[in-house]
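re: ur question from yesterday

yeah so i grabbed the chain u mentioned. its 341 aa long if i counted rite. heres the sequnce exactly as i have it in my notes:
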Amino acid sequence: MEIAQQIKALRLRRGITQEAMAQHFGVTAQAISKWERGMAAPDISLLPALSAYFGVTIDELFALSDATRMGRIENMLWDVRFLNAADVENERNFLLAKAEREPNNSEPLELLALLEWHLAQEHCTHTKEHALNALNRNPHSTSAQTLLAHAMNGQHVDWSQNNHNELISHYEACVKAHPDALNAYLWLIEQLLADGRIDEARHYCDAYEQRHQSHRIAQCRIKIAFASGDRAAAKALWEKMQQDYAGDWSVQHDVGDWQARNGEYAAAKESYRRAMDLQSAPRKIDPLISLALVCEMDHDYQGALAALNEQLIISQQEWQILGGESIDEISREMERIKKLI
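ran it thru and got these structure tokens back, copy pasting raw so excuse formatting
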């Protein structure tokens, strides 16, 4: 429903004449008539007053469809680095209400989880800044070191703070109840390997292979070989995977990641470039993100800047992303790398 129809519907619902409404807003009755017929629109400065007058939110004034509003929330979460508290509360209430109205629809809860994760990332950003400042004043602060590790997704010195047992239990229950939930196997294997539970990871890799055949099996085997300390076996597996899926850019990207993890930076850079060359426009910039990282690890700061600049160009020219957090994040990274040169 357009704003014109909504204004008329809200006015009639309140039993107010056009003249009475016009008098309240200091405009003519003809202006109200034009608003309701879609011949003119209220000045944007009047929107808060109109929403208060009718007892609705500005979104309700425009009568956005749920699908439109969900899309807008998703865009906000991708494009805005730090969210406005009022917007957060408004959209949180909308998503909670929608989830309650539609008990079989997971989308509002997924978007709500993304909203809360965005806020968590904001808090981590602030935590990192404060912890670093504290460590500049007192490099011996155990508390600041702990908080910095948490904020930057690092490892804690105490084993009990690093284990993923609760998450592992969730995924074990998930694959038992839903053996066709293939992605759950991948996440389960990842957590098991992070905790050094290699035999269990191998068991679930076998179970996954019984239900699915793809390069994901090879990826799991590579991870298990790495976790077992058998880098030669891991390298043989990724070289075979690279040959078997020579035309798949995502596989070439994955191979680059394994090469980087193995300290083969020059080979990793070639794999990331190959991953970019295999794509057609609009290209995903994931290989360039990894390329910039491995260049920095290799102290190739000019290479890192070039990869970041290419991310910027592709985002703007191929994806038509001209502003927002996606662009700002790349710019911040470029400024950070320049300070290292």
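noticed a couple things. The longest helix spans residues 107-137. also The mean pLDDT is 94.
anyway ttyl
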